Amino acid sequence: MKKNWWKALALILVTYTLLAGLLMDAPRLNILNETIRNLHFHVTMWFGMVILLTASMVYAIKYLRSGQITLDDKSVELAKAGVLMGALGIITGAVWANYTWGEPWSGDSKQNAAAICLLIYFAYLVLRNSMKDEQQRARVSGVYNIFAYAAMIPLLFILPRLDPNSLHPGNGGNPGFNSYDLDSKLRVIFYPAVIGWTLMGAWLANLRVRTRQIERALED
Amino acid sequence: MKKFLTILFLCFSLASIAQDGAYEITDDSYKDQTVEMADTMRSNGKIYVVVAVIMILFVGLSIYTISVDKKISKLEKEVFKEKANS
């Protein structure tokens, strides 16, 4: 029970996010209106994705250093959870954009980069399935994982900022996500939300890692 | 513990890179009555209907996830005990 505290924390933080995100005072901004509350749901998906994919890459490196197959299990399941959050992020983003920017997909530089990033990770999952040998699959996809991560960082954090016409806030040369986040009232919901959603993703990954390990134990 | 601290520090570092931007949110942003918000829904309390529905959904999904977690724990115990004995 002791090592399950973070699962309880995930549930508490997400519950808080749902309640506070809907009920607490939000700034009255033009165009955004009430949709500013999506900050705690859409934007947090991306933060969660980046954190989960970082963890996935760390486990890929750990696997490559030690050759322990259980580390590869963790790496792939964290990547899957990350991709899930990214996919949800892109769908929720399209819904939000439809009502604020006028169309679900406006070819905004960050939208495009996020889509490319997801495609790179889809390729990771396809690549894995193309190999039968367990160790070979783990090694090749571990190396690919590192490259995919190295591609994701400029795609999400550098390229969109070089585009002066990006619709996303915080782009066009401005580092950081300057607009919403400066506000401390939003921040007290936003940061717990990031941690909560990330832990939820980690929990789902954890469940799948454990089923993989049971499967492996039954095979042996 | 180490992981927890890393997450904590990450939050601080994120806060520190936030800079002045084009659309700053000030205290006035909270009082600007010219911007349309869902005020009616809030004043007549209907927003709580939405919140209640979402909470019921989330509680249901949470309970389901916990039960899956417990089931896997049980299987783990069985499978790994068997292996240790054999």
TrEMBL record, chain A:
Species whose genome carries this gene: Roseivirga ehrenbergii (strain DSM 102268 / JCM 13514 / KCTC 12282 / NCIMB 14502 / KMM 6017)
**Gene Ontology annotations of biological process type:** cytochrome complex assembly
All copies of domain Cytochrome c assembly protein, residue ranges: 9-150
Which superkingdom is the protein from?
Bacteria
The molecule here is called: ABC transporter permease
**Compartments it resides in:** Membrane
What residues form the membrane-spanning segments?
40-61, 81-101, 113-131, 143-162, 188-207
Q: Which GO terms describe its cellular component?
A: plasma membrane
Q: Which GO terms describe its molecular function?
A: heme binding
Q: Which UniProt keywords apply?
A: Cytochrome c-type biogenesis, Membrane, Transmembrane, Transmembrane helix
Tell me how this protein sits in the membrane: Multi-pass membrane protein
From TrEMBL, chain B:
From the UniProt annotation, give the residues forming the signal peptide: 1-18
Pfam family example for this protein? CcmD_alt
State which residue ranges cross the membrane: 47-67
What domain of life? Bacteria
Q: Which UniProt keywords apply?
A: Membrane, Signal, Transmembrane, Transmembrane helix
Name of the protein: CcmD family protein
The organism's lineage is: Bacteria, Pseudomonadati, Bacteroidota, Cytophagia, Cytophagales
